[in-house]
Design brief:
By secondary structure, this protein is mainly α. Among the domains are: about 325 residues; about 170 residues, no CATH class. The longest helix is centred in the middle third of the chain and has 35 residues. The N terminus is likely disordered. GO terms for molecular function: transmembrane transporter activity.
């Protein structure tokens, strides 16, 4: 008893200590940063959650007032099209309306063609959604949830599924079913668009300011890498992959600013061109980094002007952020460009003197030649920077009657489109077979949810990860809806009380969607909340109806995630290998291309491949393989650009015949380059080295100034190609498919 009393006394003392620490704020600090989105959201996130909650409740109230059969679809549509900015919301609403019309027409055709053939009906339903996924994968823009062109195809599959599956039970009522679904969707879009327009102020001005801010942000990310490069770190640009990802992300946001501006003078086209010029600027930096590997290339003149350029670059973001005109910036830039040109001409003049006045100092001549190549590349960097700033100024201060166009680029991957289509079709067809084979009463609901998931996520590169996040949101909303259905919403008898009960859960979902780590889970939460609540004029969602809806929903999420992991799963090694093979194929085609593509397309394809590579998060810890592929993709883009320059030089026909033949021999060898089996890589790299060695000797003996200058351009490109092939042998020597030599 005494021991028990002592133990009880110790427990009471410990309990009092814990309570006192809690009241006085003592004890170790608690990390609540993960919940900051809920208890301390920023103003924009709270505004989005508030206006979307109001829009959803208004749409639901109107649908109940009109006594529509399934009013929850109106509230669901609001959450599906609502976005953080006005431009995104309008763009998504437009494509959603387009997808709704396409899906409705396809559902009419399906139900009218085979209402009495269940298996064939399910097959064509699955094939239709797979076809939408196929088309969506080929549309311009990244394979992300914010690509609203792809969302149009997602909406087509979504509408096609819900109308066709509802019409399967009553094919003679398909017109009324379709019109009801179209009414819900249109009502949700109209309400959301109207309410969100009331929360906007000076929309056009803010959109133009955002375009300017995006350019400065991209330039602010590129400047540190270029400054390190000019300081001697030749891998500075290659080790700054986030810059390219930022450029692509900001370019995709331009179209939403164009929507917000309404009537505009091609400011968006100039903004896209300015961001593309920054990408080309970074590719020029890759060239300069490759040339820095040449011995005795950084002479006194280059180091001096490189220091001046680095100092100028550090000031550019701040000078462009101010409202002051860009004329002084362009004037300083022109002066630096003139200095580079003058110093390059001086190097060439001194090289000619050293080559024509004996005794000839071959070492000095070679050093001057290499320094001149560096100065030429530095001048090219300044040229691209000038073009970027000029385009930025035209986007900020548009001119009347401007007809400049710079459309979004599309880089299609037919193999990925077929894979996404097949994956979605097989998953939906398998769910239909389960429904038919088991005779499950709620199998139709199960299949509908599977179709919705496949329509939404099959166009993503990693649908299994997206479905996993969707499953987490589904679990949360099943618990929340169970609490609301079985306890809270059983009491209200008027719509106003129902709206008050739903306001807080909807507001929480809106805040979660505005926080990026929870965005996908919040999409499931917001979409399925109206479905699991199931508001009706003539009844309530009881426990039987709730469980008969929640169970198919939960099982559909599990089944979809399982199928995405089982059938054609995400294979990072295979995708990386496909990307690698496509780069080698482009090198071969570019070396023999008589009508070469523009430089912007080469840079765009390279950056697009790099962004796809950066999105392949596998969590397997293979940092060596990832880094080698990142470096290889950027290196492949650099070699492609220099092959373009060599083709331009050969087309001018200024080189002597011997130098032309040596350059063409390297190009011919590149036409056979596949990287396989080691030997072809070795022969290609050796051909580049031999061309550099041969043209270096010819350049030292050349006395014609214009020919020598042209040969210096050839040598600069050949030096870059040879250096990149040597630096990234692990990538270009494709005898080891997945770089697994690193683990032996």
């Amino acid at each position: 008893m005494k021991a028990a009393a002592v133990s009880f006394g110790q427990f009471c003392q410990a309990f009092r200590t814990i309570v006192r620490q809690a009241l006085e704020g003592g004890g170790p600090p608690r990390d609540l940063s993960r919940l900051r989105w809920l208890f301390a959201p920023n103003l924009l996130s709270f505004g989005y959650a508030l206006r979307t909650t109001l829009s959803s409740l208004i749409a639901l109230g109107i649908a109940l007032w009109w006594e529509l059969g399934s009013p929850q679809w109106a509230a669901l549509t609001v959450w599906m099209v609502a976005q953080g900015t006005r431009g995104k919301s309008i763009a998504k609403a437009r494509w959603h309306m387009f997808g709704m019309v396409v899906g409705m027409l396809c559902a009419f055709i399906l139900v009218g063609s085979m209402p009495q053939s269940p298996l064939l009906y399910i097959f064509w339903l699955a094939a239709g959604i797979g076809g939408f996924c196929f088309v969506g994968t080929l549309l311009p823009g990244p394979a992300s949830m914010t690509n609203y062109r792809i969302h149009g195809m997602r909406a087509s599959g979504f509408t096609y599924a819900i109308i066709a599956l509802d019409g399967a039970a009553a094919p003679d009522q398909i017109f009324h079913i379709a019109m009801a679904r179209v009414t819900y969707i249109t009502l949700g879009i109209v309400v959301e668009t109207t309410i969100s327009s009331l929360f906007q102020y000076r929309l056009g001005l803010r959109a133009r300011n955002r375009l300017a801010t995006n350019f400065v942000q991209a330039l602010d990310g590129a400047v540190p890498a270029l400054v390190r490069l000019l300081g001697g770190d030749r891998r500075a640009v290659a080790n700054s992959p986030d810059v390219f990802t930022t450029i692509v992300g900001l370019s995709d946001q331009v179209e939403f600013a164009e929507v917000e501006m309404g009537e505009h003078q091609h400011e968006g086209d100039h903004a896209r061109a300015a961001l593309a010029a920054i990408a080309v600027l970074m590719s020029r930096g890759l060239d300069l980094g490759a040339l820095l590997s040449m011995p005795e290339s950084q002479g006194k003149d280059y180091l001096q002007v490189a220091e001046q350029v680095a100092g100028f670059l550090k000031t550019i973001p701040q000078r462009l952020t101010d409202e002051s005109p860009v004329a002084p910036v362009l004037r300083d830039l022109t002066a630096l460009r003139a200095t580079c040109t003058q110093l390059a001409a001086t190097c060439l003049e001194q090289e000619m003197i050293a080559a024509t006045n004996p005794p000839i100092d071959a070492t000095q001549e070679s050093s001057l030649s290499r320094e001149g190549q560096l100065l030429h590349k530095l001048g090219a960097i300044l040229d691209e920077l000038q073009q970027a700033i000029e385009q930025f100024e035209m986007s900020r201060n548009p001119k009347p009657h401007d007809h400049f166009r710079y459309p979004m680029r599309s880089y299609r991957d037919w193999r990925m489109a077929f894979t996404n289509s097949l994956r979605a079709s097989v998953t939906i067809f398998a769910s239909g077979v389960i429904w038919i084979a088991t005779g499950w009463t709620d199998g139709l609901t199960f299949m509908m949810f599977v179709s919705i998931v496949c329509a939404l996520f099959s166009t993503l590169e990693q649908p299994a990860l997206a479905t996993q996040a969707f499953l987490h949101g589904t679990i949360c909303i099943v618990g929340m809806s169970g609490l609301l259905d079985l306890w809270v919403i059983a009491q209200p008898t008027v719509y106003e009380t129902l709206a008050l009960c739903l306001a807080v859960p909807m507001l929480v979902g809106g805040l979660a969607f505005a926080w990026p780590p929870l965005a996908l889970a919040a999409v499931a939460y917001n979409l399925f909340l109206p479905i699991l609540i199931g508001p009706m004029n003539q009844g309530r969602m009881d426990e039987i109806l709730f469980f008969n809806t929640a169970l198919p929903l939960f099982l559909a999420m599990i089944f979809s995630m399982w199928m995405y992991r089982l059938f054609l799963p995400f294979d990072p090694d295979g995708l990386r290998w496909d990307l690698r093979v496509s780069i080698l194929r482009r090198l071969r085609r570019l070396a023999q291309h008589r009508a070469p593509p523009p430089m912007t397309e080469v840079v765009g394809r390279g950056v697009d491949g790099f962004v796809r590579l950066a999105s392949m998060t596998t969590g397997d810890g293979n940092t060596y393989v990832r880094d080698q592929y990142v470096s290889g993709v950027l290196s492949g883009m650099t070699i492609e650009l220099n092959l373009l320059r060599l083709q331009g030089i050969l087309a001018r026909n200024i080189l002597p015949d011997a130098a032309r033949h040596a350059t063409q021999a390297m190009m011919n060898r590149m036409q056979q380059f596949s990287g396989r089996y080691g030997g072809q890589y070795g022969r290609t790299a050796r051909a580049a080295d031999l061309a550099v060695e041969y043209l270096s000797r010819m350049e030292q003996a050349e006395t014609n100034l214009s020919v020598r200058e042209e040969m210096l351009r050839v040598l600069a490109s050949l030096h870059v190609i040879a250096a990149e092939l040597k630096e990234n042998r692990a990538f270009f020597d494709a005898s080891s498919p997945y770089l697994d030599r690193a683990f032996t």
